[in-house]
Amino acid sequence: MKKNYVIKYLSGGKTVTSNATENEFYSLDISDADGRYTVTLNPKKDFELVDFYVEMPYEFKAGDKFFANGYQSWTNTREFTADEIRKGTIKLSHIHPYLRHYASITSDDRIVEYTEKPGEFHSHCYTYIRNGEKMKLWGSLCESTGYTYFKVGMNSNYFSIRKDVLGKKVTASLKIFDIVYFEGTYDEVFDNYFGMFKMPETRKGAMSGYTSWYNYFQKIDEKIILRDLDGLDPAKEETSIFQIDDGYEPYVGDWLDYCDKFPNGMKYIADKIHDKGYLAGIWIAPFSCQKISRIAKEHPDWLIKDENGKPQLGCIAWGGAYTLDIYNEEARAYIKKVFDVVLNEWGYDMVKLDFLYSECVTPRNGKSRGEIMHEAMALLRECVGDKLLLGCGIPMSAAYGVCDACRISCDVDLTYKGKIYNHIHVSNEILSAQSAINNSVFRRHLNGRVFMNDPDVFFLRNDNLKFTWEQKKLLARINNLCGNVLFVSDNAGDYDAVQMGLLKKYFKKTDEKITSAEYVTKDVIEIKIDENGVKKELVFNIKTGQIIKDGEIR
Predict the structure, then answer these.
(1) Contact in structure between 362 and 369 (CB atoms under 8 Å)
(2) CA–CA distance from 189 to each of 127, 128, 337, 405, 447 (Å)?
(3) pTM value?
């Protein structure tokens, strides 16, 4: 198959585009045989890359479905057909650089163009084209030098493999692509691909328990946490972990500072959790510090700066937060100290690490975004040691081989469809149970192969929630079917007998295995299941949360 190479780089302050496999700046070593395609760039002089991709024809057939893997944990992920459109950030945000940065801060809109034309999609790290039960999978084994993504035009028979190398200064040989290709069934291609990675053994485990976020958000205190801890007593045999989320710190970034909401300190809470026989988990956004935090005020030199030398906005939560620069030695030392205290002095067994994408919003120091993110994750794995690491808000390829568990969906929100204002700044990371369910279904292949899938929480409570009972049961059912991290945010002490019975049921992993899952109409997903030889079917309307069928096929 003929391939056209496009290499963009800086020369004399201007961007040069070349289709040559060798010129005065570089030569390419290319190998394409036996289902493996590699490209290594050998520089003849030091220079800076802007873009690199290879494009080729591909004949799409009727019935083909393209799998678009989202950029990070929260990004929408699913199969698409040639007549569908995938939207990027709203066009209004493009009128000003600050608005564009604000709108696309969590997304890949700054990396790849969303054409918003029928049949034109992209997928990060790996992709597949499925036609019935026949699968063709392409996957990258080389993400530490930059993000790889696959871009297609299903109506123009176009296929390309691209590398996000913006800002990468090349001073030595650089592996651009290491792509493997497999054909087979769904399970066969994923077994083959992910079998080539070095994954933590904990990926095959499971965790069931509690997280505080979705009932109280930051409004937690010692009394609430200890009350909810006691509330799980009737489900003690089914519970393995109890996690404290955001709100125990005075401000995001000031993790070790005293907070009067927890007068006895966080070690006291960990000890109480351990007394119940559970693992103790705690939430940290290790790279983030609120604008009003002590860390941001006292150590502005620790922060990533924008092109104007001002602290770069890393996320829009908490009224805005800046990002600690892992290449600043003092900031790096502070991050290590936080983990040492949390894990070794306080005694927590698991850390949920959030908003991790913020470290690589823009390239810097001659490194690509993907390179920065992989180095950031190596630092976090070093800090966590042999304790459990649950990643969240992380570019997915950077989690492989590092995270024991990982969020594979957006936040579920307290209304099933999500709040209207969530649609303003992005279109692919919208908070809602609908989006979370979609991602749980279409990222199910990661569970147990790469890490423990965290599909976010399910709910069974009656208050502070806008879900129908059927929507609650659907969310719990999907989480149990597609994930191994099974959390609620309810005070189970308020449950009646029916709710407690369902909690115990969904805290235990099912023996069911999904054999296929797809959209059969715009809003209806059909999942076929095998449970120890018994064929079953789960059909539901994802828009309404209505379960159409859940039972044995007769």
Answers:
(1) yes
(2) 11, 9, 42, 22, 15
(3) 0.97
